[in-house]
Amino acid sequence: MNCIEVHWYGLAYACAIVIAFYMALRMIQKDPKRFPIERKEFESYFLWAELGIVLGARIGYILIYEPNSGYYLTHFWQIFNPFDSHGNFVGIRGMSYHGGLVGFLIASYLYSRKDLKKLLIYLDLIAISLPLGYVFGRIGNFLNQELVGRVVPKDSHLGQIIGIMVDNQLRYPSQLIEAFLEGVIVFLMVVWAKKHTKTHGLLIVVYGLGYSLMRFIAEFYREPDSQMGVYFLNLSMGQILSLFMVIVSLGILLYATKNSKKIKENQ
């Protein structure tokens, strides 16, 4: 009888979902004025958001990073097939964070379209509950030895201290660097924003801008995808997409500001 192999990334992703879910529930309970959402209502939304993230992350990877994207576009059912050609369970490999972000925003809008006043509240809830869960995702990458760091230059004193051996090469532990910068630091940014702002939508803006900055920095220590390489100014695809994320975040800021003015005018 064949056993299904459990992958570290899958376990880490499951932990991330659980942490994000319960952190959001805690925020609803702890600060009902800022997050006036019922638990059952949030549970329904969370399912939509998670579905949007998974669909967006996988499709985004196929469209942006997958070298054989043409095959998947003509064999769409293979995009989410967790088995290889021999019937062995290998999981769904290849997820794009930025694709997941697009899927998340689309799912959030579709769920909230009948009551757009709650859209920004939902986004803020995810903004404060997601970062620490994200840490587990990157730890999963580290344990799987995927998304490895760049080779440490011989003149890098920091690299010589924190570097790890991967395939007989000293590399930066980029996954752990990302876990710290994009997870812990971004979480602290959002917590700070929560204490100093009251406008709905600003938490997701701080998250978007903070993540973009931290990801841009972390990419200097992460090996670019072999099939992608680097582009103009030696920027990686992750850095380019992070710049687009800044634009999206500023767009949400504009929407949140206008929405806040409308609420004050109607009071």
Automatic annotation (TrEMBL):
Main site of residence? membrane
Q: Does the keyword Cell membrane apply?
A: yes
* Cellular component annotations (GO), alphabetically ordered: plasma membrane
User: What GO biological process terms does the UniProt entry carry, in alphabetical order?
Assistant: lipoprotein biosynthetic process
Q: Give, as one word, the top-level EC class.
A: transferase
**Localisation per UniProt entry:** Cell membrane
NCBIfam families given in the database record: lgt
Question: What is the name listed in the Swiss-Prot or TrEMBL entry for this protein?
Answer: Phosphatidylglycerol--prolipoprotein diacylglyceryl transferase
- Which species is the source of this protein? Helicobacter pylori
